[in-house]
UniProtKB/TrEMBL annotation:
Superkingdom of source: Eukaryota
Statement: the UniProt record of this protein carries the keyword Repeat: yes
Name the UniProt record assigns to this protein: Influenza virus NS1A binding protein
SMART domains xrefs: Kelch (SM00612)
Native source organism of the sequence: Colobus angolensis palliatus (Peters' Angolan colobus)
Chain segments carrying region Disordered: 44-72
Record field: compositional bias (Basic and acidic residues): 44-55
Compositional bias (Polar residues): 56-72
Keywords noted in UniProt: Kelch repeat, Repeat
Alphabetical list of Pfam families matching this protein: Kelch_1, Kelch_KLHDC2_KLHL20_DRC7
InterPro entries with a match to the protein in the record: Kelch-typ_b-propeller (IPR015915), Kelch_1 (IPR006652)
PANTHER family in the record: KELCH-LIKE PROTEIN 32, LD33804P
SUPFAM superfamilies: Kelch motif
């Protein structure tokens, strides 16, 4: 069934019954610029609302009633709850809501108009439109992870941010958390089979891989595992040829690379690099690095693999190497401005962004960008918090920094980078009715 109902959106963020405006125009002063008027087509359904929705999430606790703005007018009240909303055109919105316990699809049609209404508009002193304004987007602190964690693995998968393992003051973790940017919500995936920290992870052919690291008991790991989202479980993968902690892990050309890392005693970096073929399920060696390094940032860009900074023994490095898989060679390129280990790296708009880390004396918040076309590094806006051994990843067109150690505390907080403003922020914007 379908009915047409008239609602208006008041300045105090309530949906009210617009039919009651008949003869009540004097309730609203001519200088009230905040009332928004809209005609609503409600398609009712007996189906329950979905558990999760791909549209932008509206505060699920936004509830209210359809009532008269004039307390003297008697009318039935209808309980309502907004589930989700999405702008489908310049003046059209699609909303999901529950009215009196019935799940409804609501189409909101608004229009832009001048400040004063045409004379043909009945009983309204000015034209009122439903148009999402900037002041209806409220900022709130981004939801933190359930667990504070440093030395974690992070990756983007299916439009979500995955944060796995890591350590805090007590132990290495098995837990895996998944962040949905559209809902600002963290949920848990199946835990890893092995507690691990000081590792990196990568997505290879749609599957999430973690390899190596440390279990928190002075033991470097050779084991690895792969997350299968179809069954929400981790499956063991062939072990590394050697135990390896603090190594860089990256997918390139359908294969998984693990480069550098710590020696078994954790005193100096390694040069050796191995590559995993998911078809043959074998690890083989590839060309070694030019410089020993561990706690480096590693990523892929433009068909090359980059390893950035890290430490040789405990001396922080600003050197950077690039791997060409076609001729199996590592080449030194322009160094960073700041030597650092335990930094994270993400790719955005064809450039590398290296974030935070440890400079040899304290955790740092500085960020620099590498332009491969110019072979140059440029300092960018600082993160809002120092972060060493944090998780850095790009989801959509946004760089996320999660967790890490700020020099005093292990973090569960999140912040994001805005390329246009060159600023980091711990806030996200949500729609508020």
């Amino acid at each position: 069934m379908e009915e047409v109902q008239t609602l208006y959106y008041s300045a105090d963020h309530k949906l009210l019954d617009g039919n009651l405006l008949d003869g009540q125009a004097e309730v609203f002063g001519s200088d009230d610029d905040h009332i928004q008027f809209v005609q609503v087509h409600i398609a009712q359904s007996e189906k329950k609302p979905p558990r999760e929705n791909g549209h932008k999430q509206i505060s699920s606790s936004s509830t209210g009633c359809l009532s008269s703005p004039n307390a003297t007018v008697q009318s039935p009240k209808h309980e309502w709850k907004i589930v989700a909303s999405e702008k489908t055109s310049n003046n059209t919105y699609l909303c999901l809501a529950v009215l009196d316990g019935i799940f409804c699809v609501i189409f909101l049609h608004g229009r832009n108009s001048p400040q004063s209404s045409p004379t043909s508009t009945p009983k309204l002193s000015k034209s009122l439109s439903f148009e999402m304004q900037q002041d209806e987007l409220i900022e709130k602190p981004m939801s933190p992870m359930q667990y504070a964690r440093s030395g974690l693995g992070t990756a983007e998968m299916n439009g979500k941010l995955i944060a796995a393992g890591g350590y805090n003051r007590e132990e290495c973790l098995r837990t895996v958390e998944c962040y949905d940017p559209h809902t600002d919500h963290w949920s848990f995936l199946a835990p890893m089979r092995t507690p691990r920290a000081r590792f990196q992870m990568a997505v290879l052919m749609g599957q999430l891989y973690v390899v190596g690291g440390s279990n928190g008991h002075s033991d470097d790991l050779s084991c690895g595992e792969m997350y299968d989202s179809n069954i929400d479980d981790w499956i063991p993968v062939p072990e590394l040829r050697t135990n390896r902690c603090n190594a860089g892990v990256c997918a390139l050309d359908g294969k998984l690379y693990i480069v550098g890392g710590s020696d078994p005693y954790g005193q100096k970096g390694l040069k050796n690099c191995d590559v995993f073929d998911p078809v043959t399920k074998l690890w083989t060696s590839c060309a070694p690095l030019n410089i020993r390094r561990h706690q480096s940032a590693v990523c892929e860009l433009g068909g090359y693999l980059y390893i950035i900074g890290g430490a040789e023994s405990w001396n922080c490095l600003n050197t950077v190497e690039r791997y060409n898989p076609e001729n199996n060679t590592w080449t030194l390129i322009a160094p960073m401005n700041v030597a650092r280990r335990g930094a994270g790296v993400a790719v955005l708009n064809g450039k590398l962004f290296v974030c935070g880390g440890f400079d040899g004396s304290h955790a740092i918040s500085c960020v620099e960008m590498y332009d491969p076309t110019r072979n140059e590094w440029k300092m960018m806006g600082n993160m809002t918090s120092p972060r060493s051994n944090a998780g850095i990843a790009t989801v959509g067109n946004t760089i996320y920094a999660v967790g890490g150690f700020d020099g005093n505390e292990f973090l569960n907080t999140v912040e994001v980078y805005n390329l246009e403003s060159n600023e980091w922020s711990p806030y996200t914007k949500i729609f508020q009715f």
